[in-house]
């Protein structure tokens, strides 16, 4: 099989490839702006059709046994792993992600399917002591119903599987609306799910460019029980408003503004390696990427020097070349955002000590900005690109205050060798995720999610299925 055998051009609804609109949109390779493929541009009407089909399928899917669902998920997992090279090529072509990272994402994304295939068999309820002598009490965890999954371009596979694997495991059916920048990976894995044997209507993917109307249908349609969204805080708030009328359940994995604190007792080389991994993963385009590097004043120069040296070694180019570590940014808007942030930071006293330049057609050099300050755009906003601003702090209290001075609360990182400090700082950081002496924190085995305006709910781990079930309490009375 070559990757072209996994290229599809239309929505997958009710077990078949289908399009209502005859117009197509182009999927662009961000490396050279060439057209990879054209996909039929479906919209709200097709989303509604997909919801109807998922709602019909739910009637029987929810009654399947946990073992049956588990074994289908495992077959899907095996097919994704067996085709990982082909899917990775598609992912790199449409997102620009370096091929090693695409392969890493496939293993990471598939691991959610494997994990929830196992967890499907452990969707336990409780037996609760009766509150009077003749009562017996149990709880059941039952699938909420149809789930709408709205997913971003930065993890074209993993953000889908992280949502739908737990949903499918407990007996929900799903309608996926992938980003219009990266629909090809989504269609490829939906095809593999079909091959694995999922019944028609259980997994549907609708592709199209009209994100707001498609999202509106998912949020407003009364047949949808739950929305799971990964994307910006701004869009998350809009979806929440749209869901309020029907009081839909929501999981929201939104923006971040991750601090990366380096204390003066840290292993500086370890911190530099962590900052490189945490900052430049997919060119800085992940929600948990390091956004603000805070370094204690007496080691500031040493850290900066070593960080510049390490960053210089990152090769920029086409992600299909295995040496490349930094691919293109996803679109021209991202380039403009980088340029605006740099201009603003320079005006406010920042100094670019490495990079800072746009390279046609759509690359931005890994950039280091020193003397960064809290009033800069790049301190307040999610950068989502390869700019690393470095701030100076004097004391632990100041570092914590700076770290928490944001509306976001997804990932945070700090480096220290002091055991007492690890306790103090981890407890003080207002974040859903804290990496200590480690810049890579993602896994299917851990609860991923944020506090404050970074969202609600957790994905992955033993908690992941909880967000797709209702707990039903059953009281059996008058037991003699
Ligand atoms: C994200 O950027 O939304 C997810 C990052 C991850 O799973 O590590």
Structural notes for this entry:
The protein has 480 residues and is of the alpha/beta class. The protein has two domains: 3-254 and 464-474, Aldehyde Dehydrogenase, Chain A, domain 1; 258-447, Aldehyde Dehydrogenase, Chain A, domain 2 (3-Layer(aba) Sandwich), CATH 3.40.309.10. The protein contains 14 helices and 22 strands. It has helices at residues 44-61, 66-82, 84-95, 99-119, 158-170, 183-196, 211-220, 233-244, 268-280, 300-312, 332-347, 377-380, 396-404, 419-428, and strands spanning 11-13, 16-18, 24-29, 34-40, 127-128, 136-143, 146-150, 173-177, 203-205, 224-230, 249-253, 258-262, 290-296, 351-354, 358-359, 363-364, 367-370, 387-393, 411-415, 433-436, 455-456, 469-476. The strands form six sheets. It has a seven-stranded mixed sheet, with helices on both faces. It has a six-stranded mixed sheet with strand order 9-8-7-10-11-21, sandwiched between helices. Strands 5-6-22 form a three-stranded antiparallel sheet, with no helix packed on it. Strand 17 (367-370), helix 12 and strand 18 (387-393) form a beta-alpha-beta unit. Helix 3 packs antiparallel against helix 6 (183-196). The longest helix has 21 residues, at 99-119. The model has no long low-confidence stretch (mean pLDDT 98). Succinic acid binds next to loops. Succinic acid binds at residues 154-155, 158, 230, 253, 286-288, 442.
């Amino acid at each position: 099989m070559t990757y072209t055998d996994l290229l599809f051009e239309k929505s997958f609804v009710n077990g078949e490839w289908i399009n209502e609109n005859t117009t197509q949109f182009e999927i662009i390779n961000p490396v050279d702006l060439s057209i990879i493929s054209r996909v039929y541009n479906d919209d709200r009407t097709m989303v509604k059709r997909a919801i109807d089909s998922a709602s019909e399928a739910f009637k029987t899917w929810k009654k399947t046994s946990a073992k049956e669902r588990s074994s289908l998920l495992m077959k899907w997992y095996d097919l994704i792993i067996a085709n990982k090279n082909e899917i990775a090529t598609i992912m790199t072509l449409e997102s620009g992600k370096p091929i090693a990272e695409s392969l890493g994402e496939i293993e990471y994304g598939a691991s959610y399917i494997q994990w929830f295939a196992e967890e499907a068999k452990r969707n336990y309820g409780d037996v609760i002591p009766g509150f009077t002598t003749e009562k017996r009490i149990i709880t059941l965890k039952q699938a909420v119903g149809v789930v709408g999954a709205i997913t971003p371009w930065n993890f074209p596979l993993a953000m889908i599987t992280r949502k739908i694997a737990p949903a499918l495991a407990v007996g929900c059916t799903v309608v996926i609306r992938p980003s219009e920048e990266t629909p090809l990976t989504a269609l490829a894995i939906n095809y593999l799910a079909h091959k694995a044997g999922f019944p028609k209507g259980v997994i549907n993917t609708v592709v199209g460019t009209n994100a707001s109307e498609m999202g509106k249908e998912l949020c407003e349609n009364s047949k949808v029980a739950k929305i799971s969204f990964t994307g910006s805080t701004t869009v998350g708030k809009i979806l929440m408003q749209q869901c309020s009328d029907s009081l839909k359940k929501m999981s929201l994995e939104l923006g971040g503004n991750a601090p990366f604190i380096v204390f003066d007792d840290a292993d500086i080389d370890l911190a530099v390696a962590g900052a490189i991994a945490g900052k430049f993963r997919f060119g800085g385009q992940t929600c948990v990427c390091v956004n603000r590097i805070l370094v204690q004043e007496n080691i500031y120069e040493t850290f900066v020097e070593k960080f510049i040296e390490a960053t210089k070694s990152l090769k920029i180019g086409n992600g299909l070349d295995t040496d490349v570590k930094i691919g293109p940014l996803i679109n021209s808007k991202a380039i403009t955002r980088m340029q605006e942030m740099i201009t603003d930071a320079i005006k406010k006293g920042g100094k670019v000590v490495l990079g800072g330049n746009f390279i046609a057609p759509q690359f931005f050099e890994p950039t280091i900005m020193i003397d960064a300050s809290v009033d800069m755009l790049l301190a307040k906003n999610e950068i989502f690109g390869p700019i690393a601003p470095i701030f100076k702090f004097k004391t632990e209290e100041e570092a914590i205050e700076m770290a928490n001075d944001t509306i976001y609360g997804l990932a945070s990182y700090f480096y220290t060798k002091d055991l007492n400090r690890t306790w103090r700082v981890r407890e003080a950081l207002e974040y859903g995720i804290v990496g200590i002496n480690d810049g890579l924190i993602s896994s299917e085995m851990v609860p991923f999610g944020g506090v404050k305006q970074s969202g609600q709910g957790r994905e992955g781990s033993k908690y992941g299925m909880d967000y797709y079930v209702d707990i039903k309490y059953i009281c059996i009375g008058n037991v003699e």
